[in-house]
Design a protein that fits this description.
The chain has 417 residues and is an all-beta fold. The chain is built from 3 helices and 23 strands. Strand 18 and strand 19 form a beta hairpin. The protein is globular. The two termini are 18 Å apart.
């Protein structure tokens, strides 16, 4: 098996500190906020106190040399599907050996924040070998949009995709390289939910509130791309029937809480406004009429309003920001003291947050892996109870060297021996 220790073998042996971190993480309560004048709507909505547990762990690099890896998915034989944002999908074996990029993908519009993003197995994958994936797709002129496709995965010595079909396209298309989203989850009824961004530019933001637009929306679809008849706006004049919730800025993750029907979502907010939401059917999550944080260029958002009539408050927000990448609940047995925790990865913040929950409230935050000094993109619990992460070391790629571009890794986090 190809295995390295992320060039940290000398340090990982010392991972006996609280939370397995290489050094004591700063208490989030003590950091200067980005939005000094704003106040949370309720106690504990931001800056949860540090709650750490004694847990030693080690990191094992399964595969390296990946270019902007976005998502990891687990195959029944113990191998992995990993997407690379420039438009490559690979099968990575348990021993770290990588397939060539799979043939059969549609044309991917790779630029800035766009490209090949999430991948998910069909709930009936064992019988139909179907996968779903999200990506940015070109439209007429200079426009593009988030799209969703399905295909049949053919494994073997040369894995490939067959019968690829695009089943959803975000509308309207816009000439923007930003805020595509996107994550995919399946509900218990086997419908598919996919989040997507509002495309970033000032002129598109109001469409996150418009029910005749798919910008800034979480959509719910049947697996063939058709619209479920019980969607909240299905059949409503002037509204898109695909919409499940709206008022989103640029989401990076979705996850169902184990043992419940709660759908949790994390999205990139403004400076001081990255947030976690619990999604209600037909819910309005405020953007851009209500938001925590301040605009990155300094302009006010929603005239500083953090609440608006008919909108739902986040259950938690970060000020200062985390720049979220992925999210996963942990319910495995390898880390008993982490059971029930919610993990959110940080990109520019370069740490992984382990959040302690009490009901639907976040009551504690522990920061892990700060001293590894990389951007953490996806996170998922594997069938073996280990935690798997992908790294995206150099952001959108505009100022990356060739070495930095291909420095992404698939990493396994396990208890230390």
């Amino acid at each position: 098996m190809f295995k390295t220790q992320f060039n940290l073998r000398f340090a990982i042996a010392l991972l006996v500190l609280s939370g397995g971190t290489l050094a004591q993480a700063p208490n989030p309560e003590n950091e200067a906020p980005n939005a000094e004048s704003q106040q949370p709507a309720f106690s504990g909505q931001t800056r949860a106190p540090e709650i750490a547990v004694e847990q030693a762990f080690e990191l094992i690099t399964i595969a390296e040399g990946l270019e902007f890896p976005w998502a990891v998915e687990f195959l029944p034989d113990g191998s992995f599907l990993v997407t690379e944002r420039p438009g490559r999908l690979r099968v990575i074996a348990a021993d770290g050996s990588m397939s060539d990029p799979l043939q059969g993908l549609p044309a991917i519009d790779y630029s800035r924040q766009g490209g090949l993003m999430d991948v998910a197995l069909d709930p009936d994958f064992a019988s139909n070998q179907t996968i779903f994936f999200s990506f940015s797709e070109s439209a007429d002129g200079n426009a593009n949009h988030t799209a969703l496709a399905r295909a049949r995965l053919v494994l073997g010595s040369q894995p490939r995709l067959e019968d690829t079909q695009v089943i959803y396209r975000q509308q309207p298309s816009t000439p923007s390289p930003f805020h595509f989203g996107s994550r995919i989850v399946f509900a218990a009824d086997k419908t598919l939910l996919m989040i997507q961004g509002e495309r970033g530019a000032d002129q598109y933001r109001p469409q996150a509130q418009a029910l005749d637009s798919l910008l800034g929306k979480l959509v719910r679809l049947n697996r063939d791309g058709s619209i479920p008849t019980d969607n909240p706006f299905a059949g409503q004049e002037g509204a898109r029937g695909e919409i499940w919730s709206y008022g989103h800025r640029n989401s990076s993750a979705l996850a169902f809480r184990p043992g419940t029907d709660e759908l949790w979502e994390v999205e990139h907010g403004t400076r001081g406004g990255d947030e976690i939401n619990i999604i209600d059917r037909g819910g309005n999550y405020g953007w851009p009429d209500a938001a925590y944080g301040i605009e990155y260029m300094g302009q006010p958002i929603a005239e500083g309003a953090t609440t608006a009539p008919g909108t739902i408050q986040p259950v938690y927000y970060w000020d200062p920001v985390i720049a979220p990448g992925g999210m996963a609940f942990y319910n495995g047995d390898l880390f008993p003291d982490w059971k029930g925790s919610l993990f959110v990865t940080g990109l520019n913040s370069r740490y992984v947050a382990r959040l302690t929950l009490d009901g639907q409230r976040i009551v504690g935050e522990e920061r892990l892996l700060e001293d590894v000094d990389t951007r953490w993109r996806d996170i998922a619990q594997g069938p073996d109870g280990a935690i798997y992460l992908t790294t995206d070391p150099c952001g959108n790629g505009g100022r990356c060297s060739e070495a930095e571009r291909s420095a992404g890794r698939l990493i396994k986090l396990v208890p230390a021996p």
